[in-house]
Amino acid sequence: MTVADQFHCAPLRPEKLSSRSGAVKLVFMGLRMLLLAPLLWIALAHSEDVHVRVSPDVKTGIEGTTQFPTIQMALDHHPFPEAGPDGKPGRVFIEIAPGVYHERVNITQNHPNITLIGMGKSPEDVIITNSLNAKQAGGTSFTETVQVNGPGFEADNLTFENTAGSTGQAVAIVVRADRSIFKHCRFLGHQDTLFADYGRQYYVDSYIEGGTDFIFGNATAVFDHSEIHANAPGYLTAQSRTAPGQTTGFVILGSKVSSGIDHASGLSATGQEKEAISLGRPWRPYSRVVYIDTWMAADVLPQGWSRWGKNNEEPRAYYAEFDSRGPGARPPDRVAWSHQLDAATATQFRPQFFLAGSDHWDAESQAGELP
After folding, report:
1. What residues contact 267, with CB distance under 8 A and at least 6 apart?
2. What is the DSSP string of 248-277?
């Protein structure tokens, strides 16, 4: 599956990656030294970062080296960075050569500030893939191809994939790490593709594909300028906020909801809802999902949202839209218990506010530092 043209990522420029670790050579002469001092400080601030390489052409990898044949080996054995002169912790950049990596990857809690960067021209060039469903694994939480638990995680220009297909729950990635960023990434699966489970998460210029509940969990997550693609009738989101005071929820911002449903196949002829796409259903009672400035395909249900079969009670979920567009945007037909927001109310769900937290995290600026 190819990302829509408007979401294609620009080719990576290797020089951007090496600039953090390159030697800095300055001529200290009079006033020139004063002019170059700020540049020297910036370089030193990044000089403690660690860069390692992953490539299929590497034949061995041991602790203390910086080249490995698999992603998991790089995570297990990479050197740890020291804090920079400014006291900020260093970061580990794992630069992954083009290829298909048939492995399961686990970024543990004691490996913070990991950045995975695909070195291809597009996310299709570096694929991390596995095939495992809940029946085979003994539960949904054991099916993931990639698991992220280390805080401060970043991924750029990669594909995360579970190829189990329409065989039940099969997770491509589970993210349980605060301050996580995914840029120019693809997430491919069918049911339960992306488990955004915990912490603040920012997805930008990315592509997420699935059929049922394929963005789910109780993270505080924003999906910015991304494509949410339904490859079968079902539910785009299953957010799981459990109490009205929780700050969690999903925001789909400036994005596109697309559909690959084959209406001629005859496989989904059991009712209108099963032939179409629901914007979401409440996995937990106070589920919260907001769509802002998002284009929606015609296959989106006119009523928009689903109850998860609880037809005898008014849902306590907070489901809302602002300025939805396209043939699937039909505000007058939405369920009565959903919300159409005004501009002022919608502002609180934009990333600079929704993801800020007590530490005033600027997810957009951090993502802008990635290639």
Report:
1. none
2. -EEEEES-EEEE---TTSSTT-S-TGGGSE
Judge whether 40 and 24 are in contact, CB under 8 Å: yes
Q: Check residue 178 and report its DSSP letter.
A: T
Q: Characterize the bridge pairing of strands 194-198 and 159-162.
A: unpaired
Percent of the chain that is helix, strand, coil (3-state, to 5): 15, 30, 55
Higher pLDDT, 40 or 233: 233
CA dist., res. 47 & res. 91, Å (int): 10
Q: Are 273 and 302 in contact (CB under 8 A)?
A: no
**In the chain, what are the domains?**
49-368 (2.160.20.10)
Find tokens 């403690």 and name the residue.
48
Note whether 159 and 184 are within 8 A (CB).
Answer: no
Whether this model's pTM surpasses 0.90: no
Going by their DSSP bridges, the two strands 67-68 and 105-107 should be labelled as unpaired
Q: How far is CA 364 from CA 179, 337, 369, in A?
A: 11, 32, 9
Residues 6+ apart with CB under 8 A from 15: none
Residues carrying an active site annotation: 192, 213
Q: Left if phi > 0, otherwise alpha if psi is -120 to 50, otherwise beta: which for 99?
A: left
Total residue length of the chain: 371
**58 with 67: CB under 8 angstroms?**
yes
Q: Which of 25-34, 61-70, 92-101, 317-326 has the lowest mean pLDDT?
A: 25-34
Please give the Cα distance from 233 to 212 (Å, whole number): 7
In 3D space, the residue among 333, 99, 349 whose CA is nearest the CA of residue 249 turns out to be 349
Q: Give whole-number Cα distances, 76 to 100, 110, 166, in Å.
A: 20, 11, 33
